[in-house]
From TrEMBL:
Pfam families: Glycos_transf_1, TreT_GT1. This is Glycosyltransferase. GO terms for biological process: glucose metabolic process. The lineage of its organism: Archaea, Methanobacteriati, Methanobacteriota, Stenosarchaea group, Halobacteria. It comes from the Archaea. Residues 40-182 form the Trehalose synthase N-terminal domain. Homodimer. One of its GO terms (molecular function) is glycosyltransferase activity.
Length: 414
């Protein structure tokens, strides 16, 4: 396992974007955990939403006085092919899960678990990939509660994958889901719901000066913001349905001929299928001069793209939460998103954007056109969106929810 390099973060810096009462609560909860060491374990340090969350949560926790570490698994492509199949199976894809795949999963988890040598009072395991470390952790840290933080959509899992993962989740001390419905199919001990959040101070979300915006726009050339721009930012993954977004674009372009589409995705270190999907999308769009398929952009460039786009689309088929929705809403850009997973928790239909069923390409295209042709509505939605994210989906709220669970699990007095 290895420990990622983390940025400096001060809780005081969040006073400009959240209310004092919430910051006071955070400090009170942290005070109850001042003698506690917390370990977060996940499978990648780059390219995924979990990594982005931990990159902010861990240093802010430390600044609050809660001694917090983050370890990332060391694994090869064979292991990540297995865990990607597990991820897809838990989200409804009936892919095989063979005994050989299970053996690979167990062996890599065992090898990583023996590398955890420090003492911890609480361990948080993120998603299914590191769940196989639980037996070794129980032996190594017998008094430390283990919390499983599930970030994926479990509403329609494959029975084989669910059974395999449930054999581990029954042995954790507490589970955290992003929606109540996600915990229903899987057997766990007591559980809680915590909505994920964005970090408003991270490079992807913070306010930018004119020079930074100009530099990012230069990097996006030949994209021009002189004509309408629609954007989707997602991992290149079948569940994100970039092909459906292309169809939405083509429908909207019939009424807005100058429309441009930008499809941006990162390559997560634990997703071996990302490059293949990227290449498929790029081939599909190669004859479309107004479609730009981009990958691994700097965070500041993504920030500018979300700010300068007229509409953002999130055409997911399944979605654990989809924080890219809140990222766009925070920047006052309305979103047309699928009514799946965590997206309807973020979009207030008809007030900050629009919700459509994941197969409703025509409806999504029509909503995109409505927003492109009505500047006043875009402005109104953007104002509402910024405030909704401020209230519900910024990091201080999420961290307070998590620390409250730690206090409960450790039986501390806050």
């Amino acid at each position: 396992m290895h420990q990622p390099t983390l940025p400096a973060r001060s809780i005081d810096a969040y006073a400009a974007v959240t209310d004092r009462e919430r910051l006071d609560r955070l400090r009170s909860l942290a005070g109850a955990l001042s003698d506690v060491r917390v370990l977060h374990v996940n499978s990648t340090a780059v390219g995924g939403g979990v990594a982005e969350l931990l990159r902010s949560i861990v240093p802010v926790s430390t600044d609050l006085g809660v001694d917090t570490d983050w370890l990332v698994m060391d694994a090869d492509d064979e292991f990540f092919a297995v865990t990607k199949a597990m991820h897809n199976g838990l989200q409804g894809d009936d892919s095989p899960l063979t005994e050989e795949m299970k053996a690979t999963y167990r062996a890599v988890n065992e090898r990583n678990a023996v590398e955890i040598e420090s003492e911890y009072d609480l361990v948080v395991i993120h998603d299914p990939q590191p769940l196989g470390t639980i037996d070794r952790l129980r032996d190594r840290l017998p008094d430390a509660p283990i919390v499983w933080r599930c970030h994926i959509d479990l509403t329609d899992p494959s029975p084989a994958h669910l059974s395999f993962v449930s054999a581990y989740t029954t042995r954790v001390d507490h589970a955290i889901f992003s929606r109540e419905a996600y915990g229903a199919p899987i057997e766990t001990p007591p559980s809680s719901v915590v909505y994920p959040s964005i970090d408003p101070l991270a490079a992807k979300n913070r306010a930018l000066d004119d020079d930074a915006v100009a530099a990012a726009c230069d990097r996006l050339d030949p994209l021009s913001f002189d004509t309408p721009v629609v954007t989707q930012i997602s991992r290149f993954d079948p569940w994100k349905d970039q092909f459906g977004t292309l169809e939405i674009f083509r429908r909207a372009r019939e009424q807005v001929p100058s429309l441009q589409l930008v499809l941006v995705g990162s390559m997560a270190g634990d997703d071996p299928d990302g490059l293949e999907i990227y290449e498929q999308v790029a081939r599909e769009a190669v004859t479309e001069p107004d479609v730009h398929v981009l990958t691994d952009l700097p965070d500041e460039t993504v920030n500018v793209l979300q700010r300068r786009s007229d509409v953002v689309v999130q055409k997911s088929i399944r979605e654990g939460f989809g924080l890219v929705v809140s990222e766009a809403l925070w920047k006052r850009t309305p979103v047309v998103g699928s009514n799946v997973g965590g997206i309807p928790l973020q979009i207030e239909d008809g007030n900050t954007g629009y919700l459509v069923e994941p197969d409703d390409v025509a409806g999504a295209g029509d909503h995109v056109v409505e927003l492109l042709q009505d500047e006043d509505r875009r402005t109104s939605f953007g104002t509402n969106a910024r405030e909704r994210v401020r209230e519900r989906f910024l990091l201080p709220r999420q961290l307070a929810d998590q620390l409250a669970i730690y206090v409960e699990v450790l039986d501390r007095d806050s």
